[in-house]
Amino acid sequence: MEHHRLTPLTERHLPALRDLVQDPDVQRFTRVPVPAPPEWIETWLAFYEQGREEGTREGFAIEDDGGAFLGLVFAVKIDAEAATTELGYVIAPAARGRGLASRALAELTDWAFREREMLRAELRISVANAPSKRVAERCGYACEGVLRSLFVKQGVREDTELWSRLPTDAAPA
Q1: pTM of the prediction?
Q2: CATH number, domain 5-165
């Protein structure tokens, strides 16, 4: 099993993030604009850094033991009053297919429940993104249904599945 660690996203991750947003799967299945405007990555990172300070969002790089970038996990939105959060994950192409997404999402989910005392974690996954749905299932998330025509990207409206997990749910096998 490949070892990894989660570290707060910072400016040192910008080159890896720039590469990541060029990946066709990232462009297809995330909310990253296509094409990403020239300063989009810097603005996105600043948005997460501000959210870290405010407690409203958080982003972590997934790194191997040598510090190489493998992907990222993030709390897209943290609502402390409602004790709910939307989580997400993106794995770099070279690191896919090794169970890293499942391990990193499990770690992020645990962080949300223990560190941030969330009572509900949500994932929003494209109905066409079968690998991401398998990750959600492995991490004990339940599919609650389909949010029809939720996002528009490149002029195409897309249905999105809503997955959730509660800290009281049975631990994944």
Answers
A1: 0.92
A2: 3.40.630.30
